[in-house]
Amino acid sequence: MGIRAILSSHLPNGQFGRHSLCLAAVGREIMKLDTSGLESAASLFGASSELFDGFATAPSFELPVTNDFDGFQKEAIQMVKPAKGTTTLAFIFKEGVMVAADSRASMGGYISSQSVKKIIEINPYMLGTMAGGAADCQFWHRNLGIKCRLHELANKRRISVTGASKLLANILYSYRGMGLSVGTMIAGWDETGPGLYYVDSEGGRLKGTRFSVGSGSPYAYGVLDSGYRYDLSIEEAAELARRAIYHATFRDGASGGVASVYYVGPNGWKKLSGDDVGELHYKYYPVMPSTVEQEMVEVSGA
Amino acid sequence: MTKQQANWSPYDNNGGSCVAIAGADYCVIAADTRMSTGYSILTREYSKICKLAEKSVMASSGFQADVKALQKHLAARHLIYQHQHNKHMSCPAMAQLLSNTLYYKRFFPYYAFNVLGGLDSEGKGCVYTYDAVGSYERVGYSAQGSGSTLIMPFLDNQLKSPSPLLLPAQDAVTPLSELEAVDLIKTVFASATERDIYTGDKLEIVVLNADGIRREYMELRKD
């Protein structure tokens, strides 16, 4: 604005018009801040509208040009063979929410990893579990974490578990039928107390107190349902969760690795244990030395 | 009327294997140089390794046209990052970028099986392993490609470290020295070449450490 002031003091009013417009334009150019450096590349992917409206839009994905979208997806998934096969569980009890999962990722019959983090820390008081496609779960949980943070910044308070699970369910519903594979549980502690929701890629969203998801879930349910009581202590609940995961990894080939157990309480989540299921087996069923009936002896000579 | 099947596929598999091993202050990334299609060899001297940033090197097997497109995309994004932030991307940042880039093509995937190696901000070696749609994990070592099912069990036997998920946490640094790791890589590829038809010709090894980048080659069986 200083340039305009200097200009007006030197030129008569008549000539003020055109020249000043140019120089005022120049003046504006000089005053204007170049914010292109602050734009993240996220705008390339259509995510910039998140900052402007309350309803964050999903990133836009390019789609293959084909008549047979389903067939193409089937073939692509066959070729790509994303990692799935798992056991995860979560339940609400008197003290809060207990969440547990195994850590095996399988691609068909091949174990691609024994150390996958299937319990995703969305924020310090909310956890999500991963079952189904590993990339789908990782990406959309991270996206959910971003949305939860934006909610906190926009509303000056934390998002509820109900709200977070609804955000995720709506996103997954909009991609329904396109081949995403997500079976997740959102567990957290908000103003109303402990919360647990099951959300999947078919668009389903269920509120509940006990869930298990994955190929090993029938086995986990057996142990979980028979041992569950609302008034368990934290140690008892953790042991129940650990046992349920162990038994599922014992019988389900697609589950294994390390059984992780997390607790969500009024102060947020805390990781309670991470035990190799092979070692848990010998802890629960130690090898007993048994009496020998017949003992083989070395025969010397020919 | 039976459903029409597509008689042209946009994908092809050019074969090959890639391996990366992370050490206390180094990272070794290696890949063979054979490019094939079906039972034919297209060339014996194709590099599958690409330097993305000062301390990040990616090796990819699968469909090399998709790999080339992916490398170009990442190089362009890295250049933009350098202009905006006045520094190179760190390896963990590049790892996340690669994951997102792969996932944005979730419905028309890059047929690329990647392994990213480098040094993290503390100078320790890091290896990230990916599936074709972007799920990733930081590990101590990894193998991808047609020979991965032959190579991984051997690396598990030699390098297996306690899982990072265990609590109480156990230290997971690979105890091998840089020379031992390079030697292990050579052994591993020689064995994979014996039993995998898509792996062979020549081995390209890239070693990243505090002094910079070093490249080495070794001849493999050409049959």
UniProtKB/TrEMBL annotation, chain A:
Broad class of the protein's primary localization: cytoplasm
Summary of the function given for this chain in its UniProt record: The proteasome is a multicatalytic proteinase complex which is characterized by its ability to cleave peptides with Arg, Phe, Tyr, Leu, and Glu adjacent to the leaving group at neutral or slightly basic pH. The proteasome has an ATP-dependent proteolytic activity.
Positions of the catalytic residues: 86
Gene3D superfamilies: Glutamine Phosphoribosylpyrophosphate, subunit 1, domain 1
Family: Belongs to the peptidase T1B family.
Catalytic reaction list: Cleavage of peptide bonds with very broad specificity
PANTHER family (UniProt xref): METALLOPROTEASE TLDD (PTHR32194), PROTEASOME SUBUNIT BETA (PTHR32194:SF3)
The protein, known as: Proteasome subunit beta
Cross-referenced InterPro entries: Ntn_hydrolases_N (IPR029055), Pept_T1A_subB (IPR000243), Proteasome_bsu_CS (IPR016050), Proteasome_sua/b (IPR001353), Proteasome_suB-type (IPR023333)
Complexes and interactors: Component of the proteasome complex. Component of the 20S core complex of the 26S proteasome. The 26S proteasome is composed of a core protease (CP), known as the 20S proteasome, capped at one or both ends by the 19S regulatory particle (RP/PA700). The 20S proteasome core is composed of 28 subunits that are arranged in four stacked rings, resulting in a barrel-shaped structure. The two end rings are each formed by seven alpha subunits, and the two central rings are each formed by seven beta subunits. The catalytic chamber with the active sites is on the inside of the barrel.
Gene Ontology CC terms, in alphabetical order: cytoplasm; nucleus; proteasome core complex
Keywords: Cytoplasm, Hydrolase, Nucleus, Protease, Proteasome, Threonine protease, Zymogen
Annotated localization: Cytoplasm; Nucleus
One Gene Ontology MF term: threonine-type endopeptidase activity
Keyword flag Cytoplasm: yes
Species assigned in the record: Hevea brasiliensis (Para rubber tree)
From TrEMBL, chain B:
Primary localization: cytoplasm
Gene3D superfamilies: Glutamine Phosphoribosylpyrophosphate, subunit 1, domain 1 (3.60.20.10)
InterPro entries attached to this UniProt entry: Ntn_hydrolases_N, Proteasome_bsu_CS, Proteasome_sua/b, Proteasome_suB-type
Pfam families on file: Proteasome
Localization per Swiss-Prot or TrEMBL: Cytoplasm; Nucleus
Similarity remark: Belongs to the peptidase T1B family.
Protein name, UniProt field: Proteasome subunit beta
Lineage of the species this protein comes from: Eukaryota, Viridiplantae, Streptophyta, Embryophyta, Tracheophyta
